[in-house]
């Protein structure tokens, strides 16, 4: 099956970067898991999951919106980038202040609070990230080079400076610093090659951006609930060791869905540009998208499912053997995710984000209920089941919406 040169270049660039970066990430996770032990690794996982909700409020769906709008019209890049950066920096300051107050009030050990506050610096780092701009203009190779370099820097820092269980805060700091280098690098490239960065808030323009982004941040928040709520609830309801066990399985799961994200990111600009129509080019892109998405989901699911015990022991060691059970469930979830990404994300590219948000809200609600019911009795196994069943609930919604919006296109 032939695909366009641009999509092929995008796929190759992103795949190369993600493969190298995720190998680094797994090595780093394996190293941290062994050094910090399940308890310390659990604290780090809890902090990452907790902060992720605040990161969504800083991002505010603007990454996806920005990529889509740049792909449609590159001439608006300067105005769009400057306004999005400005509003996100403002969001970051507000949400970090709120996060600080929450951390001071919660009943957690001092070490956990320190790790939470260090990890939350990513709110400010995320605010100045403009990966979305380079995705919109389809300069995937720049993202690839930057991603490889910063991940190598992070891995090197972890190996050099994290030597014992008490180095938990150092590990959190290195991860944040690497993310900062990542964002600053692309900002410098944008400023020197494309347009000068100027913080500005155009009131009327921002109203349009915020209005378009609201459904995106809502759907992203709902997705985060059924991806991260289990980790947060485990952190509050169960010992840090249980969180560490689940975090190990989840790290492998996240690595498993990376190829799905690669396929999506490679096709998303083309899906945005073509739009929802009856053209031959549209049908061709959809068929290619389905072929790569479903094929990727099946291969990754089968690989992890049939080698779960080997993968866990190889990466994290025997002290994480219990992670095999949740990993088997999460492996099946990868297959469901590949179907949902195929059906759901094109709706965003076609401007149907409000419809998409209803489907993910249904999944988020299911996840909340399932976590409350399953985690107290089944701990990390219950959390994994809640994630899988929530994704299945999302499938019902996106399947209906995809068919509703494309029926006329494929009917003739």
Provide structural commentary.
With 412 residues, the chain is an all-alpha fold. The two termini are 23 Å apart. It is globular, with a radius of gyration of 21 Å. It has one domain (5-411). The chain is 86% helix and 0% strand. The protein contains 14 helices and no strands. The model has no long low-confidence stretch (mean pLDDT 81). It has helices spanning 5-59, 62-72, 77-105, 110-119, 122-127, 131-136, 140-161, 168-193, 203-237, 240-274, 280-306, 308-315, 324-349, 353-411. Helix 4 (110-119) runs parallel beside helix 8 (168-193).
Briefly characterize the structure.
The protein has helices at residues 5-59, 62-72, 77-105, 110-119, 122-127, 131-136, 140-161, 168-193, 203-237, 240-274, 280-306, 308-315, 324-349, 353-411.
Write the layout of secondary structure elements.
Blueprint: H1 5-59, H2 62-72, H3 77-105, H4 110-119, H5 122-127, H6 131-136, H7 140-161, H8 168-193, H9 203-237, H10 240-274, H11 280-306, H12 308-315, H13 324-349, H14 353-411
Helix pairs in contact: 1-3, 1-4, 1-7, 1-9, 1-10, 2-10, 4-8, 7-8, 9-14, 10-11, 10-13, 10-14, 11-13, 13-14
């Amino acid at each position: 099956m032939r695909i366009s040169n641009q999509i092929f270049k995008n796929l190759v660039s992103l795949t190369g970067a993600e493969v190298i970066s995720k190998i680094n990430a797994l090595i780093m996770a394996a190293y941290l898991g062994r050094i910090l032990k399940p308890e310390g690794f659990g604290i780090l996982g809890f902090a990452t999951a907790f902060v992720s909700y605040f990161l969504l409020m800083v991002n505010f769906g603007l990454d996806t919106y920005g990529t889509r709008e740049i792909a449609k019209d590159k001439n608006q890049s300067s105005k769009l980038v400057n306004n999005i950066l400005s509003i996100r920096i403002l969001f970051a300051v507000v949400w970090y202040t709120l996060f600080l107050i929450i951390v001071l009030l919660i009943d957690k050990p001092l070490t956990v609070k320190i790790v939470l506050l260090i990890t939350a610096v990513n709110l400010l780092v995320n605010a100045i990230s403009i990966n979305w701009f380079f995705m919109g203009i389809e300069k995937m190779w720049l993202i690839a080079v930057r991603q490889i370099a910063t991940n190598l820097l992070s891995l090197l820092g972890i190996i050099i400076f994290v030597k014992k269980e008490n180095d938990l805060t150092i590990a959190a700091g290195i991860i944040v610093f690497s993310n900062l280098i990542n964002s600053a690098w692309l900002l410098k490239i944008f400023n020197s090659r494309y347009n000068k960065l100027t913080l500005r808030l155009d009131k009327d323009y921002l109203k349009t951006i915020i209005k378009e982004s609201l459904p995106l941040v809502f759907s992203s928040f709902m997705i985060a609930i059924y991806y991260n709520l289990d980790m947060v609830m485990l952190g509050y309801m169960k010992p840090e060791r249980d969180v560490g066990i689940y975090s190990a399985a989840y790290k492998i799961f996240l690595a498993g869905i990376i190829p799905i994200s690669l396929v999506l990111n490679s096709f998303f600009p083309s899906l945005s540009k073509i739009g929802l129509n009856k053209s031959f080019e549209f049908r061709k892109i959809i068929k290619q998208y389905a072929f790569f998405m479903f094929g990727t989901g099946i291969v990754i699911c089968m690989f992890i499912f049939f080698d779960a015990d080997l993968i866990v022991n190889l990466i994290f060691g025997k002290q994480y053997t219990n992670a095999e059970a949740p990993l088997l469930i999460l492996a099946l979830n990868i297959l469901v995710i590949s179907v949902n990404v195929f059906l759901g994300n094109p709706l965003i590219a076609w401007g149907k984000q409000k419809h998409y948000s209803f489907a993910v809200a249904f999944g988020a609600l299911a996840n909340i209920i399932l976590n409350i019911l399953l985690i107290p009795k089944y701990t990390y196994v219950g959390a994994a089941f809640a994630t899988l069943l929530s994704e299945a609930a999302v499938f019902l919604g996106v399947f209906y919406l995809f068919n509703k919006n494309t029926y006329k296109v494929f009917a003739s």
